Predict the structure.
Amino acid sequence: MHLPFLFGDQFIPFRHPIRRLGKILFSAGIHFSSFVRHKKRKMKNTILSIIALMGICLSGNAQNLTFPDIPRQLPRDLVLDSTVVRSYEMITEYHDYDLKGNFQRKTRITADYTSGLENGTTVRWNNVFMAQTYEEYADFSMGTKQELMEGFSYAPAGNIESATFFDGIPGADIMHKNLVWDMVALEGFAYWYWDDLRMNIEYKAGNLNAAVDLAGEGTFTNKDIRIQWIGITVINGEICAIIKYYTMNNLLNVKTGDISVTGRSHYWGEVYVSLQDKEIEFATLFEDVITEVVMPGQTDFSGYTVRYITLTRKS
């Protein structure tokens, strides 16, 4: 018995595979060679056309192309004027799934944040709206205004971890409180290690690796925060430093009433800081959280939440 060897759509007996295969390859080679020569001519003409077009474009702009003089470290003499009033819009989305990736629901919170008030001693939240849908690809509605957050003000250096910090907004849940905590984190990643950052050198923010109290409702433990200045860009007409941050396998332990939530969090993002006045022009945060929820009288539930945050400068 001679088992066949399949080549293309032809069967070659193993008795004389090399001879038959050689003939087929030779025949195919003739056709392929002709095909390649034809394609090469067309490709050559196309490449020449592209080169000519690039030459036309570059001839008019080459004089304006310069490589920027980028320092190896961020300017230490650049000081943020905390008395300047700055306003931002923060948009946060929570997308909830079970452990098999089946969509459960999604929530969006939009909010206005203003800093620099009262000569730099106060920050404030306004126009906080929350919308929710159980349709994965549905657009969000405007949502319901969160009146408890309207005009919520505090000192930027306030103790946001304290159980009494949110006494001024009774009824606030974890999503309301996250607005405050997330904003402090974004400002911190922008400024806390400014003098230590070097271009493309990762900085280990070891003193941030600790358990943070969640206003008496549990703890969030940062495990290994890394911060890095990765380049420059232009946002809102300002030349900005791009500061990247990330940390993985952080621990979450929350207890609200009879509900217990434990899990782990990965989060990362970027902050864009002006090299002219040190003000934040834009920022992002992404987070992936796996949790186990335990409630009395109900079956334990495990799932995960993906969070997306954008902070956009308004004025």
